[in-house]
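Re-run with default settings, no changes from the original entry. Doing this only to confirm the output is reproducible before filing.
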Amino acid sequence: MKVFYFMERLTTPFGNNNKLLTKLGFLGIPFIAILFFCGCSTSPEKSNEVAKSQVSDMYDPEKRLVELGIELPEASSPVANYVNAVVTEGKVLFLSGKGPKQVDGTYITGKVGENLSVEEGYAAARLTAINQLAAMKAELGNLNRVKRIVKVLGMVNCAPDFGNQPEVINGFSDLMVEVFGDRGKHARSAVGMGSLPRGIAVEIEVIVEIE
């Protein structure tokens, strides 16, 4: 009441019309502010939902494979008493080790640093990535269900003094990122082996978080 009285006193010399306008203006400011904030403000939760929706719309590994010109083969069957994949209740997919199986059914074999170059090892790791993608799709039905490539174990059949295992396994990692974007970035180990089953150049295991 004191505030209104003070404003009336200030406007009295200018007539009743000014006094009325002052009252309306003073009372109108809070209402305008309320209308502005009610109409324009967006909760952080709503903003996050919109952002996630936009990212989801952009995320399409199946489409990305087409863009890369990659056609997945049929997932190969296990060669012993095990399965290709296991899914836990926590939405984690564990994939058994795969090697660089070619379209004709043969494998890339040899030792990197001995009778295979780093570049040939890289190509073998990339081919292994394609075979693991085939195993993922066979298990999940659609690669869009992949939420994150979590962990990769890359084993390289190599000469005893060879030390460039990471460069070889990059063939696998690079393709994961090409297909899944940031979701394809993963924790990783790249190690050398004295030998691998049937003399294959690389063997790679994967752990995947799924929707």
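Residues 1-41, 50-55 have pLDDT under 50 and may be disordered. DSSP finds six helices and five strands in the chain.
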